[in-house]
Design brief:
With about 300 residues, the chain is mostly helical. Helices cover about 75% and strands about 0% of the residues. α4 packs across α5 and α4 packs antiparallel against α12.
Length: about 300
């Protein structure tokens, strides 16, 4: 338990430094974008390549991936049914908030959590592949249909393969699967570059926390509350049941699946909402509130399940 608290303290301190820099006016939201782009296009792909190149490729296509997929599907269906009956008939709004109920922040928070809380960065691999190869294209395709031709079919289908993090992760997985030994002169600079990924992500995330107050009247508070409850509470419990009793994974994998299930909603959902001009405030508030709740939920999970 002490190691978990230290891990969260490390993550929290770097996030706090980012928030403090924004609070003091040292950096603004443009600075956050620079940090995000540097991490997204350079440091994170290098980190994922070096991690997955040495990972057990069987983990990428194991019960961990199935647990993540079924967990997402379960909470999405619950949200869609409840929202359609009681809250709204707007399909794009339901699609965005329903996806937000299960689409996790693997990039900004998942990697640091996997490294410092679970103790192994390779656990981001299955969820990364699921979200970038399957869930994101499906959501974009659905929104494209609902909002009448905002993007081409070719653009939707090729979008995952233009994602540098996916490219880095996929190349690493191929190296692992083929048991290729990467020469040290090639690996060393990638390890140095990858070492910058987590600090850059956490600083950028801390900067982003300085923003508007959530849950303003008339913003769809009931929809937000439902999505936040599903993401922060129901999804971790559901994936625990799947991992422990359905797939009967070992204790370390059950712990990893449950922790990863407790990750907050990814900021990608807010970006998609802005792009299609649907459910923007709802998406923003879900991201923010699940981020705040994720820490205490993960601490409880760690106290109960850490091997």
């Amino acid at each position: 338990m002490g190691g978990v608290l230290i891990g969260f303290a490390i993550i929290g301190f770097v996030i706090f430094v980012g928030w403090l820099l924004a609070r003091l006016g040292v950096v603004n939201q443009d600075g956050r974008l620079v940090l995000n782009k540097t991490s997204f296009f350079a440091a994170s792909p290098a980190l994922l390549f070096t991690v997955l190149a040495e990972a057990d490729v069987r983990l990428l296509f194991s019960g961990v991936l199935a647990v993540a997929a079924l967990g997402f599907l379960g909470v999405f269906v619950v949200y869609a049914v409840v929202a359609r009956i009681w809250f709204t008939k707007d399909p794009a709004r339901i699609a965005l908030a329903g996806t937000a109920s299960g689409y996790s922040n693997v990039n900004n928070i998942g990697l640091p959590v996997a490294i410092y809380v679970i103790g192994d960065a390779q656990f981001v691999g299955p969820m990364l592949l699921l979200q970038l190869l399957v869930l994101a294209p499906l959501l974009l395709a659905s929104l494209d249909i609902m909002t009448a031709g905002r993007a081409s079919l070719v653009g939707i289908l090729t979008q995952p393969f233009r994602n540098p993090m996916l490219i880095g992760g996929a190349l690493g997985a191929i190296v692992s699967a083929l048991d290729i030994q990467v020469p040290q002169p090639v690996l060393a600079p990638l390890e140095i570059l990858g070492g910058a990924a987590v600090p850059l992500m956490l600083l950028a995330f801390g900067i982003s926390l300085r923003g508007d107050r959530p849950l303003q009247p008339g913003t769809g508070r009931k929809e937000i509350a439902l999505a936040v409850a599903l993401k922060s509470l129901v999804l971790p419990a559901f994936v625990f049941v799947l991992a422990r009793f359905v797939f009967q994974l070992d204790d370390q994998l059950v712990y990893a699946c449950t922790i990863m299930g407790a990750l907050p909603t990814a900021q990608n959902i807010y970006q998609y909402a802005l792009r299609y001009d649907r459910a923007t405030v709802i998406s923003r508030d879900i991201v923010l509130l699940t981020t705040v709740l994720s820490l205490p939920v993960m601490l409880v999970i760690a106290a109960l399940l850490k091997p």
